[in-house]
Amino acid sequence: MTGRGRGARRGVLKTMWRERSAYGFLAPGLILFSVFTVFALLFAFYLTFREWNILEPEKPFVGLQNYRDMVGDEDFRRSIINTAYFTGASVPLGMVVGLGVALLLNQPIRGRGLLRTLYFLPNVTPFVVAAIVWKWLYNGDFGLFNYYLLKTHLITEPLVWLSDKNLAMPAVVLMSVWSSVGFSMVVYLAALQSIPNDLYEAARIDGAGAWARLRHVTLPMLRPSTLFLMVMGIIGSFQVFTQIYIMTSGGPLNRTTTMVYYIYEAAFKFYEMGYASTLAYALFLMLLVFTALQLRLYRRADM
Question: Which regions span the lipid bilayer (predicted)?
Fold first, then answer.
C-alpha cells in the first residue's frame, strides 16, 4: 500500500472515530436491516438452489431445477395473467376516478375539507378490515349489493360475486379501486394546486373553454404526477395479497390467484420454501424492471 493510500485510510478511520456517536445511533437500524433484509434476501437466493421442504430433514441441492419448474409451471403463468388483469383494471381506473375527485374537490365548494377527508379515509383503513367489510357487502344471501340491485330490479336473482369465475376478479378490483382513490386524489390535488393560474388566464384570453383548458393545460401539467401514480400503482398491484387472501382465497378455479398469493401457497400451504423463493425472485425481477422504467419515464418527463 502506498503512503497516499495509507494516509487516506487513516483519514477515513479518524473521521469514523470522530463521528462514532452517530454510528452508534445508526447501529440498531443497520443491524435490523442487515438481519431482516440483507440476510433474508441472500438466504432466499440460497434456497432457490435447493429442494427445501420445512417438514423434511433433507434439503438436497437441485441446481437450477426450481427455475426450470417455474418456467414450466402452468399455474404460475395463470397467476401472472391474473396479476396483469388486476393491474390493468385497477390502476387506470383508480387514477381516473382519483383525478375526477381531485378536480371536483379543487373547486371552491362548501365542505371541501370534510369531503377530502372522507374520500381519503378508505386509504388509511386497514386492508384486512376493508376486505372483511367488502366480503360482507358481496355476500350472495344478505349482502347490500344484491339487496339494492334486486330492489331496483337491475337483477332478477342474487349474484354470487366472489364465487363466480367471471365476477370474482372484477369484485376484487372494485374494492381495490375504492381503497386507492384517496391516495390518487391527494397526489393530484397537490399537483393541481401547483399549476400557475397565469396559464389558465392565458388560455381564457385565447378563448379556450373548460374542456380545452383541461386538455391543453391541466393534463400536461399533471404528467409527472400521472407517471408517479401509474408506476407506484403497478408496483403495488403486483404485490396484491390481502384482499385475495380474505375475500376469495385465490378462487374460484384459480381465477383470482395472483403472484404473491401463489408464492404464499407454495411456501405455507405446500411448504416448498425453495420453490417459493424462486417465485419470489421472479417477482422481484419484474418489479425491478418496472422501477427502472419509472426512473426512465421520470427522466423523460423532466427533459
Answer: 21-47, 84-105, 117-137, 167-191, 227-246, 279-298
